[in-house]
Amino acid sequence: MTNRHVVAVLALLVAVTSRADETETRVERTDGSVARGTLLAIDTETVTLTTTDGKQAVPLAEVRRILLDQTTRALAAPTVQVVLVEGGELSGTDLIQEGGTIVLTTTEGKLAVPAERVRRIAWGAPAGTEPAWVAGLPPKPGSDLLVVRREGEPEFVECAIASIGGDTISVVLDGETIPVKRTKVSGIEWLRETTTPAGGTVVIVRGGRLQAKSVRWSPEGHVLDDSLRMPAAALRSIDYAAGRSVPLATVEPERVDVEPYFGGLRKISGLASFFAPRTIVPPSGDGHAVLLVRPQTVLTYRVPADSRRFRAHVERDVPATATTHVDVLVMLDDKEVFRRRIDAATAGQPVAIDADTTGGRRLTLTVNFVPGDLGCGLRISGAAFEK
Asked: Where are the beta strands (DSSP E) in 46-136?
């Protein structure tokens, strides 16, 4: 093989390795278009990609969501779970405390979390699940709690957590610093108030879910709120739209008018609540509430300031084979922005509502009967105003 051939083969190998190491990124814009390429950087103003057309910078104001390729190597089974004061969760294979920082070891590398943001640490609890000992926590503890393993019920020891090492946890009890073997500890519960999320931007990382005001990313690392640091490879997705959204479930309607098919039914004790709109929160508590509305109902909402769009998905609250149907109408002030009949033809495929609300003051949602039909309930999911 000549030197020229060797150089050509090496160049090919380098090119293939480079492409294998690159992670395809999907950037969904607010106008519905999508950009794809290799992620170069995320700062407070733009997302920068290398695409087939060259380098492209997308302003964050135009970004709804960033999705990274989910094809990665298998995760080591997490053995420790971290819950933050604002509700975010992380998981990893080991954990220590270095001064004012909690250092969590994961498959991708080490995550550094300010200790004051940590509310709970649980060893041995499966990722995404609440440890069993949480149910037994004292209602009003006087200090931090060390959860000690015991046969039967765990023991909650009130103390001050001084440090967390690889083999021991140092606690201060009655003025004396005492080392406790980590193998004897199920968890730590700090006496810290739960706060509202730092921001609405939802960040998914390997083994965790967080919310943040600011997100920065480069191949060298990933930083949230200028304080929580993690490897670049940990990032899975960023949902900016969540930070700009006002869920309809959190907006109190200005007016609610309900008129059942047989109007007199709403006057019967106990039936009025059946016909009234109600919000259904899944038992999992993942926040994806569903608004159940029955015909004929008219809901009027004041549009939150700076709202640009109203989005939702609607479907019938009956079996797919049912023939009953309803009409849905959405008005922005005096302008019709959406009208659709929701029937068996839409079964299994929720109908999307996407309305421009720029400059609007009130949004009216009407679920109405179709002539000759008793109608059915309508499930409205993902309903939100986006800024």
From this structure: 46-51, 54-59, 63-68, 80-84, 89-92, 94-98, 101-105, 110-114, 118-123
The DSSP line for 326-359 is EEEEEEETTEEEEEEEE-GGGTTSPEEEEEE-TT
* CA–CA dist 149, 385 (Å, integer): 47
| Largest separation between any pair of C-alpha atoms in the chain | 93
Phi, psi of 265 (to 5 degrees): -65, -30
Per-residue confidence (pLDDT) for residue 84, from 0 to 100: 94
Task: Report which of 339, 351, 338 is spatially closest to residue 378, judged by C-alpha positions.
Answer: 351
For residues 384 and 247, the answer to whether their CB atoms sit within 8 Å is yes
Pair 238, 200: CB distance under 8 Å: no
Instruction: For residue 319, count other CB atoms closer than 10 A to its CB.
Output: 10
- Mention every residue, 6+ apart, whose C-beta is less than 8 A from residue 256: 276, 277, 297, 298, 299, 300
Among the ranges given (137-141, 244-248, 371-375), the one the predictor scored with the smallest mean pLDDT: 244-248
Q: φ, ψ for residue 93 (rounded to 5)?
A: -105, -15
- The pLDDT confidence band at residue 8, using thresholds 50, 70 and 90, is very low
Residue 215 contacts residue 205 (beta carbons within 8 Å): no
Degrees to nearest 5, angle at CA 77 with 68 and 124: 125
Q: Give mean pLDDT, residues 52-70.
A: 89
- Partnered with residue 329 across adjacent β-strands are 339, 366
- Both structure tokens of 17: 């390795």
pLDDT tens for each residue of 285-328: 444 679 999 999 999 999 998 888 999 999 999 999 899 999 99
- Rounded CA gap, 124 and 184, in Å? 12
CA atoms of 261 and 265, how far apart (whole Å):
8
| Res. 88: pLDDT tops 60 | yes
Contact in structure between 145 and 158 (CB atoms under 8 Å): yes
